[in-house]
Amino acid sequence: MVVRKFHRIYSNKNLIIMSKFILFISVVILMIGCKSDYEKVINDFSLHSYYLVVKVSTDNNIMEIAIENEVLYSLFNKNISMSKTNYKKMISNALKKNTPIKVDKDFFRDLEYYVVAEDKAIKKINQNGIEILKETFFTDGVLYKRLTYSETKFLIYCLFKNNLYVKVDDESGFLILE
Q1: pLDDT tens for each residue of 64-78
Q2: How far is 34 from 13, CA to CA, in rounded Å?
Q3: Helices 69-80 and 84-97 sit at what angle, rounded to 10 degrees?
Q4: For residue 8, is pLDDT > 70?
C-alpha cells in the first residue's frame, strides 16, 4: 500500500515536471520561430528596399517618417557613420518600443521630406479595415491608383502599422505589397 502510494505521488510529480518541461520547450520553439515582424524590413539594404515607418526626434520635435530602409541607413551612415549592425539594433529597438530615434537638428531637417502627413480620404478607407484598404489601392499586390507623394507616404504608414510592408518593384517602378 505504501509502495503504491509512493508510485502514485512520484508519477504525479513526474507528470507535473514533464508538463512544465514540455510547456517550456514549446515556448522556446515559438520564440525562436517568431522573428520580429520588422526583421525583413530592417535587413533589406537593396536598391529598392522595404519602406519603414519610424519616429525621429530632436529637442522638442517628434515626427514619423515613411522612408526606404536603405535610404534611412545611408542618411545615418552619412551623418553619424554608423555600422549596419548598430543601425539594425537602433531601428529594431525604436520599432519594438515605439520610441523616437534622437537626431540632431540638421539631420532632423534632412528627414522632413519623408514626414508622414495624415490623409483624410485614406484614413477613412483604413477605418473600414486593412482588407478594404488593400482592395482599394492594390491589384494583385501592385499599387494601381495614382497617388501624390504625400498620399503614398500615408498609405505606407497605414500598411506598416498593420504589419504589411511595401517596396518599389525594380522593373516596373510600382509600389508592391509583399
Answers
A1: 999 999 999 999 988
A2: 32
A3: 120
A4: no
Cell (9 digits) for 5: 502510494
Return the pLDDT at 45: 84
DSSP 128: T
**Residue 154 contacts residue 123 (beta carbons within 8 Å):** yes
Angle of helix 149-161 relative to helix 130-137, nearest 10 degrees, comes to 140
Residues 6+ apart with CB under 8 A from 116: 53, 63, 64, 65, 66, 153, 154, 156, 157
Question: Helix (H, G, I), strand (E, B), or coil: what is residue 106?
Answer: helix
CA-CA distance, 134 to 73, in Å (whole number)?
A: 28
Q: Calculate the CA 148 to chain-centre distance.
A: 23
Maximum C-alpha span of the chain: 83
Among 46, 55, 49, 101, CA closest to 79: 101
Extents of the domains making up the chain: 1-34, 39-114, 120-177
Write down the pTM of the prediction: 0.77
pLDDT score, position 28: 45
Report how far residue 65's alpha carbon sits from residue 112's, in angstroms, rounded to the nearest whole number: 8
Please give the Cα distance from 59 to 82 (Å, whole number).
Answer: 21
3-class DSSP assignment, residue 40: helix
- What mean pLDDT value characterizes the chain? 84
User: pLDDT value at position 13?
Assistant: 65
